[in-house]
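Quarterly update from the structural biology core.
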Amino acid sequence: MAHGQYSEEEAWLGQAQPEQVDAEMNALAAELRRVLALTVDLRPLPGDLAPLIVQARALADGLQGLSSVRAPAPGAVHRPFDPLRFNPVSGTCNPVAPPLETWRVTSGPDGPEGRRTCGRVRFGSAYQGPPGHVHGAMVAAMYDDLLGMSQLAAGFTGSITVKYRRPTPLHRDLDVVAWVDRVDGRKRWLRGTCRLDGVLLTEAEGLFIAPRQGATLDGITAHLSGA
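Predicted structure, tokenized:
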């Protein structure tokens, strides 16, 4: 997966969505996120879901008829590459995302107490693996996103190693941190941790590799096309 934080978002991604569209997409995703969480907790009686299935089908049909990346309406912002909003881990416009919230600390040397990415995430019922706890694959996906956005340059995931120290509970605010550990040419190694009330739950190390063609949108595109 390609990651990286860019100061000029529009230069990378194209024209920004109007504020109203952005707010409405966020609100829609939040409600659909509620639907996902409530759905996996359901244990309904026979027939309870019949009217809701009709409503869900109508909603899907309505969404299918709107302007989209595959069929944009005249005047709509056509932004085919928008990982910031539709990322499956941290995208606020993606109902599948928990979402992971992050912020940057820019002072000091790279490290867990210096220049780093801090964040918070709460996994709901849709991400359950063991009873009452988060599926390990979701923890790994969270680290892929967290470490990737912390590398300070665009790069693709080479490998990620996650150490699961304790089970990760659902429905709790988890504190995450990630930082650049070392750099060697196009390779960057990052580390990260996830804690609950200061107790270490998991930690990870990831290797990310910048495209040979350069850490630019053109370089990423060329790498993905096999050029």
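DSSP finds six helices and seven strands in the chain.
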